[in-house]
Design goal:
Blueprint: E1 11-15, H1 19-30, E2 36-41, H2 48-61, E3 69-71, H3 85-88, H4 110-119, E4 124-128, H5 133-141, E5 149-155, H6 170-174, H7 176-184, E6 189-192, H8 194-197, E7 201-202, H9 204-212, H10 216-236, E8 241-242, H11 244-253, E9 258-267, E10 278-280, E11 291-298, H12 300-313
Parallel strand pairs: 1-2, 1-4, 2-3, 4-5, 5-6, 6-11
Antiparallel strand pairs: 7-8, 9-10, 9-11
This protein binds beta-D-ribofuranose (BDR) and calcium ion.
The site of beta-D-ribofuranose has 15 residues, from helix 1, helix 6 and helix 11.
Length: 317
């Protein structure tokens, strides 16, 4: 098994939990030495009030309630939110009835939290596992935060196939204007698209392993992922389930575990059948858009091992 160096920079997470967002958060919290500055949530898989509650539910489950969380934008920049309860459950966490959070959200809202936490450190990784609405607004309102972002690592987009439509991935499609703005901002940007996340699939045997770890975090992960795997079984006829946001989390912590190539990328905002498509100029010949790092290949074995090790780390707590 290959091993890769861990990035030492602190991480700020923007997310919409969402089962795979919640799992990504568990992976961050269970990875040794990762400093999590805070969490902003956005309307996405479920409405923003619920994404904010869910982030706090997971933090409390993991014994990390002191990490500040706040709800950001409820709606995309220019369209109405279309949520994804069919993938994530009515509660966004696979209908597992996790207790309500006891710690209130941070004052001031998610966009302010994101701005304040980034400005407070020289450099951080901004990990975004959701529509990019909060990030776009933050960059509009306080462009000086770009000097504090070493890179944005985004789960979103694709070099090819989509999931919400044949052409578009959900996070790009849910707020294509925001995705376009952030990609065009010039802030260093790593796209962890479907073409990568489909390389890292968990299945029923993975969940069985998580259950043997014998701690409440791993048990909760297995319960919520059961719903997620069932969705993929019904949709695609296989229990192999791409665990999108957790792949972006591992790629953020261990950058060398993801092979990337720099390409010009833009986002289709108005297409008749291609709205939300991330158009990657794979030959680099046709576009004057900014180049971003496009993820092409993840070390799937390593990613799955980091995820399992993160869950196992809660056994010692
Ligand atoms: C992305 O969309 C959401 O449903 C998931 O949480 C993930 O961020 C995958 O397309
Ligand atoms: Ca997500």
């Amino acid at each position: 098994m290959a091993s890769y160096g861990r990035d030492r920079l602190p991480v700020f997470l923007d997310c919409d939990p969402g089962i795979d967002d919640a799992f990504a958060l568990m992976v961050l919290l269970g990875s040794p030495g990762v400093e999590l500055l805070g969490i902003s949530t956005v309307g996405g898989n479920v409405p923003v009030e619920l994404t904010c509650e869910n982030a706090r539910r997971i933090l409390e489950l993991c014994g990390r309630a002191q990490v500040p969380v706040a709800a950001g934008r409820a709606q995309p920049l220019a369209k109405t939110l279309v949520s994804a309860e069919e993938v994530h459950g009515r509660d966004g966490l696979g209908n597992i009835n996790l207790p309500s959070p006891t710690v209130p959200e941070a004052a001031g809202g998610g966009v302010s939290l994101l701005i304040d936490k980034l400005l407070a450190v020289p450099r951080a990784i901004l990990l975004a596992t959701a529509p990019l609405t909060n990030v776009a607004v933050a960059l509009q309102e306080h462009p000086e935060i770009s000097g504090h972002i070493q890179r944005i690592v985004w789960m979103g987009g694709s070099t090819g196939f989509g999931n919400v439509t044949p052409a578009a991935e959900y996070n790009a499609w849910a707020d294509p204007e925001a995705a376009r703005q952030v990609i065009r901002s010039g802030v260093p940007f790593v796209m962890v698209g479907l073409n990568v996340t489909h390389q890292v699939a968990l299945d029923r045997s993975t969940l069985a392993h998580y259950r043997t770890l014998g701690n409440p975090v791993a048990e909760t992960a297995a319960r919520m992922l059961d719903f997620y795997v069932t969705f993929h079984e019904q949709e695609a006829g296989t229990d192999r389930s791409p665990i999108h946001d957790a792949v972006a989390a591992v790629a953020a912590i261990y950058p060398a575990s993801l092979r990337t190539v720099s390409y010009p990328v833009d986002v289709e905002t108005k297409g008749e059948i291609t709205e939300g498509a991330t158009v990657v100029d794979l030959r680099g010949l046709h576009s004057d858009q900014p180049r971003i790092e496009v993820g092409l290949e993840a070390d799937a074995g390593f990613h799955l091992e980091v995820m399992a090790d993160s869950l196992a780390s809660f056994s010692a707590a």
